[in-house]
Amino acid sequence: MSETVRLRIDIVCAVPKTLDSVVTTSIVGRAREKGLVDIHVHNLHDYATDRFRHIDDTPYGGGAGMILECEPIFSCIEGLQAQRTYDDVIYLTPDGERLANARCVELSMRRNIILLAGHYKGVDQRVRDVLVTRELSIGDYVLTGGELAAAVLTDAIVRLVPGVLGDAESALDDSFMNGLLDAPHYTKPADFRGHRVPDILLSGNHARIRQWRHDQALTKTRERRPDLLSENDGQ
Ligand code: 6GU
């Protein structure tokens, strides 16, 4: 409760319910309770100007799908920017830069960020031209809305904020953190239905265990993601 807030995330979206569980449960919920991160979800319908609270309209030039209008998005985001300075306004969209670990690390060190989740066919281009500083996609597939992508990004960033993970080491050993996939893990029992834990892990020789884990990580990365190795030449 008494920790200082390191990162504030404002999520602007059309379907806030999608984000409830991510923001309130597990590690992200605990980080918020500890006061390490501050997460606010804003419903674009609250910024609609008509009494039907509509926030989207048909596209100029015709075609299928609805486009989120400028007015509610500008009103919400400019209202936030009047209260504090934001380092980034990030639009979640399948045609954005594909999210990778390095970007999550960078964003975890920001002070205030806004995440804008699109919906339907996306937002009016003028929102992107004027308000947005960065566009991110969470992978090469299409979701029905950006809310789940915003939830994924929030989870990935928050766990990297210093103090959020209990064991300070654990984020450093993750897949991707050192450019390699993670080594295999085992817990008790040492023999489960005849499937034995590798002897090396029971040996108590920590130098050899560290070497074994590194070798395993390297082998797995070579097999599954050789593209990661070409970026750091295998060590
Ligand atoms: Cl950020 N949004 C949507 N709607 N679909 C996606 C995505 C984002 N990233 C991958 N697919």
TrEMBL record:
InterPro entries: Alpha/beta_knot_MTases, tRNA_m1G_MeTrfase_C_sf, tRNA_m1G_MeTrfase_TrmD, tRNA_m1G_MTases_N, tRNA_MeTrfase_TRMD/TRM10
UniProt keyword tRNA processing present: yes
GO biological process per UniProt: tRNA N1-guanine methylation
Keyword annotations from UniProtKB, A to Z: Cytoplasm, Methyltransferase, S-adenosyl-L-methionine, Transferase, tRNA processing
Protein name per Swiss-Prot or TrEMBL: tRNA (guanine-N(1)-)-methyltransferase
GO molecular function, one term: tRNA (guanine(37)-N1)-methyltransferase activity
Binding sites annotated in the UniProt record for S-adenosyl-L-methionine: G118, I138, G139, D140, Y141, V142, L143
Subcellular location(s) per record: Cytoplasm
GO CC annotation: cytosol
Protein's gene: trmD
